[in-house]
Amino acid sequence: MQQRTIGSRKVSAIGLGGMPMSIEGRPDEDRSIRTIHAALDAGVTLIDTADAYHRDAGEVGHNESLIGKALSSWSGSTSDVLVATKGGHLRPGDGSWTQNGRPDHLKEAAKASLQRLGGDAIGLYQFHRPDPDVPYAESVGALVDLLDEGVIEMAGISNADPSQIREAQEVLGGRLVSVQNQFSPAFRSSRPELDLCAELGLAFLPWSPLGGISKAGDLGSRHDAFAEVAEAHGVSPQRVALAWELALAPIVVPIPGASRPESIEDSVQAVDLELSADELERLSAETLD
Ligand SMILES: NC(=O)c1ccc[n+]([C@@H]2O[C@H](COP(=O)([O-])OP(=O)(O)OC[C@H]3O[C@@H](n4cnc5c(N)ncnc54)[C@H](OP(=O)(O)O)[C@@H]3O)[C@@H](O)[C@H]2O)c1
What is the reported pTM? Predict the structure, then answer.
C-alpha cells in the first residue's frame, strides 16, 4: 500500500472514514466490524472517527468504541494504525449537529475519547469545526494543552479556512499536522485550503471524498467525466475520484467512508490506478452544474 505522511507518522494513502457505521442508517455491529477488518486486511493504517459519530443521545463515542473493538479483535498487529478522532461537535439525538469549542469541553472530550480508544495517547486529535461563540485561538489552545499533557500525539483541525489554518499553526507553535475539509468531485471549493496545506507541508484529508453517504453510490451518474474515465480503465467511478484526489498533491489523504467491506476494498485500489495527464486535466476541468 502506498504511504503518505501525517506529521511524524506514515499512513496508507487511503484511509477509512468511520461515520457511516455509527450515524443514521448504520449497519449492525457485525457488518461494521467486518468492514473495519477488511480495511485493515487491505493495508489501511488510517481510520478517521469523532466522538460525535453516533445516532442517539447517550451514545457519545459510538464510532470510537466500535473502532476500538475492531482493532482489538483483528488478527494482525495494529501498532502502525493511526486513529484520528475529533472533538467539538455534539449530537443531541434529534439528527442535528451542534457545537462546543470551549477549551474545557475539548479537553474533557479528548480524555473521554482516549478512554474509549485505549492506549497511552490519541494518535491524531482534530478540532472538528470552528465554534462561532468561541474565539478560534482559544479552541485551538486546548490542543496545545492536550499535546503538552501527552493526551494527544498530534493535532489537526477540520472545516477551517486559510486564515484559520494559519492562525492554528501559529497558536500551536508549528505543531499543526493536518487539515480535514470537505473535498470531492462535487465539492471543490476547499481547493485553496488544499493548496495552502501543500505549501505549508500539512496533510490534507478530504472528507466526504465521494460526495457524501447519500450521493457516493451515484458518483458516476452525477459526473460524466469520472464515469467515462472509469469505463476506460474498467474500474469504479469512485476509484477514479479517489485516484484523482491523490494525484492533486502528495499531502492529500482521502478518507472514504464505508459500511460494507466491498466499498473500502474497492476504494483502497485507487492507490494503484494511474491516470494520464490528459485524464487528470479532464477531471479537474469538469464543469459542475
Ligand atoms: N470533518 C468533518 O466535518 C466531516 C464531515 C463528514 C465526514 N467526515 C469524515 O469523512 C469520512 C468520509 O465521508 P462520508 O462518509 O460522509 O462520505 P463519502 O466518503 O463521500 O461516502 C461514503 C459512502 O461511500 C460509499 N463508498 C465508499 N467507497 C465506495 C466505492 N469504492 N464504491 C462505491 N461506494 C463507495 C460507502 O457506501 P457503503 O456504506 O455502502 O459502504 C459510504 O457510505 C466520514 O466517514 C468521516 O470520517 C468528516
Answer: 0.98
